[in-house]
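Table S2 (continued). Query chain:
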Amino acid sequence: MNRIYQGKVTKCQQWNEQRHDWDDQSDWMQTLWHHHQLFQDAVNYYIVCLLALATDPTSEPARLRERIIKDGDEVYIWGQFRRRGATRRGLRDSVAPYLTPGNKAPTFEQVAAVVLSGNPLATTNEGRATLYAGLRQLLEKCTGNSGCRNAAPEFLPRFCKPDFGGNYAEDKAAVARQTDKLRLPFVVHNPSTRPDSAELATFEIALPNPKKPIFSPSESREKLQTMVDAWRERQPKSEPDWKRLEDKITKLPENLSLPGYAAPSAKGEVKFRL
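Corresponding output:
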């Protein structure tokens, strides 16, 4: 276990709540070592959690995992192993006190069962495929010297917050949106495209808003009228067109409802056009 610091530790202090000051610690080297060990346990914990997501036995991560937990393999690090002439703690020794207390020598399968307990995705084949898809996505993005650091703001909420309500760029709907985004200009600028062309009704390029998935009939009409007013202000010479749209709005079905979409990050006129 190695930690590299930009400097040299010469002492450790602990905050004293009563005196509102720092106290020197006589056994600071033991405290520092405990910090090292706890940090390494945390790193190993996340490695084990990620390995548990490799639910496809034919995948490269799953094959690597089998080697990691197979005693005698050159990459075995599940139990104690030797590197550079020293015996080192394995992944099992790091995570067992936290995941399987009372069982100091659990198998990987036992640890993985604890990691995935309570996760409904782990109970079905489709769900397990989703878990592996998440791992594959993470591995594809977290590459290079700064890959993990740069990807952390995006992936940490997805993997660590059960109530995460954001959008996933790799799900089926998101992939379809990206495809439609690339296809839309070709359809719009096609000379054969007309206002009532069926192709114009097949695009889904906006992000759904999970907090407001559907607007009520009154809200929907209000939004449409707001859009018309905004365009009328920008292009007053097109007044006949705006009146025609207003007339169409009044004739829309009473049970009209519009889907809610997430606000774009664009600003100014770009945001308005979106």
